[in-house]
Here is the input.
Amino acid sequence: MRTTIWDVAVVGAGMAGLVCGRSLQAAGYRVLVLEKSKGFGGRIATRRLHDTRADHGTPYLTTEDSLADLIDTLTEQGCLHPWPRQHYRLSATGELTIAPAPKVAIAPSGINSVGKFLAEGLTVYRQQRVVALAPTEHQTWQLSCDGPQSAELLGDQSLELEARAVILAIPAPQALPLIHTVSPASAALDHLAAALDTVVYDPCLTVMAGYRRDRPAPPGKNPDENIDGGWTIKSIEHPTLRWIGLDSSKRTVSASSAAGPSVVVIHSSPAFAAQNFDAPNLHLIGAELVSAAAESVPALANPDWAQVHRWRYAFAQQPYTHTRPYLISTEPLPLFCCGDWCQGATVGAALQSGLATADAFKRHINISNRQ
Here is the structure.
């Protein structure tokens, strides 16, 4: 089998990797995206379970300036809708107070539809974890992958992947070990690795809980009010909880069909996640989170089912704050790093980092003599 030499291999199919890959492909580069999981979007994730679905990562897109164009495009296509809801603040001691609800956009079919949209037209090899990078004598990067050999890779494409440049669009703690696989190292790579090493992430534990009875609502909230029963709760002070939302209220934009079984998503606080992240019994940890939520919203007690998900790299608690939202090394070969950990911890930060990386690639990297 012949080896295809790509102009650029983008490692990671989250927001940063997908928008970067789309921009470069639109500019005429041959782009390959490698993703270790089955889906697109990173934390813009939706899980199917119990004949329904739940957005167990990023719950919505905020209408901040950096996301305005994307939200407008997806809204025009019917993928995104506004989410009218009641919003509450949760105090450190569990008291709820009504607060202004920021304008957000949600996807009735699941927030992962955003990642699917961005991946359209890109060549993406999923379930391919990149484990090593090595420069070749042909002035290309060789990428070693650990993943199932899917049928699409066993056609005229070889699993021996090569690219003239690499973009690591993954969390900084995942990019750092890949940098250390490069031999021989260079002063530029050492500088890049030192910058990656400054980034610190907070973890998160997420519970998806299902209720067959009527929609559970916070105290004083009538689920039959004219906002489809939607509600969210946010806290920066509570020792156990960070965010709670009635996820099932996003699955329809029609009040007439909003009744029925409910799904609530609960995100832990960083401190709780750090303390319990490697607990051997996630079921018990999930029950503890549900119990904490039920102290403020009694209707959340005793769900009919619950699942827990670990997010090891949930939020960049200490991001990279250089003047540019990406890292670059040209020795021994072109290599970029980008992601939401560049100057922020939001979806908007990831989008800006991916687009800025693509622009820098076009300005500084001359890829010629394509085969």
In short: DSSP finds eight helices and 22 strands in the chain. The domain at 5-36+127-199+319-364 is CATH 3.50.50.60 (FAD/NAD(P)-binding domain).
